[in-house]
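subagent[fold] <- orchestrator: predict structure for attached chain, return tokens only, no commentary.
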Amino acid sequence: MGAIRGKMDERILVCVFYGPNGERLIRRGHQLSSMLGCPFYVLTVDPLPVDEFDAEKTAYIERWKDLTKELGATEFVIRDNEKRPTAKVIAEVANQQDVTQIIIGQTAKSRWEEITKGSFINSLLRELPFVDLHVVSVARTIRASEDEMFERGIRCYLIQEGDSYVLSFAQRKECQLEGIFFKEVGTDFNNGIFKFMDGNQLHQVSVHDGKIDHPEKIKSCIEA
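subagent[fold] -> orchestrator:
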């Protein structure tokens, strides 16, 4: 008679990709691993090499790494520069770590939109027929936050004018900070948010009529 599988024989893999719902999936994985008393891993897959990630994607990665460590996950795995189908990459990592349960997001952005389609789920189940698959629903408000409130981000720069900082969409020698500007939908003015990296941290400040609302935040980062 075969041995009965115990709690510690379970292993959970959380799959996240560029977007705001990754943290929620990681916390769900931690919750499940705590209930089962088993280890969990976090995986992200990307077709680009790490050194080609933009500032926002890099910020998500750093946050996920920190959260993974904070919650006591066994490992955060990055599979970058991947040209193979996502299902095969997930299956490879799952087999390497003897994973028994996988968590994915139902409405994650970008390439992982395909996760919501039966074809992706069927592909994953064909690769891992004995693994339990958890498909977690993502709140519509999370998904809509930037899709519906702001236009697509564009690269821009900040120039100091007195005690203020203003947006510039052309790089000039007096530019002091580079980032991404997200313009509010439905406005004729440059109102929205400006996101930028300071070291490994992603920051954002509000913009009104092309000017930063809280210039002291920008000044403190530049002078640090």
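orchestrator: received. Logging for downstream: The chain has a mean pLDDT of 81. Residues 55-70 form the longest helix (16 residues).
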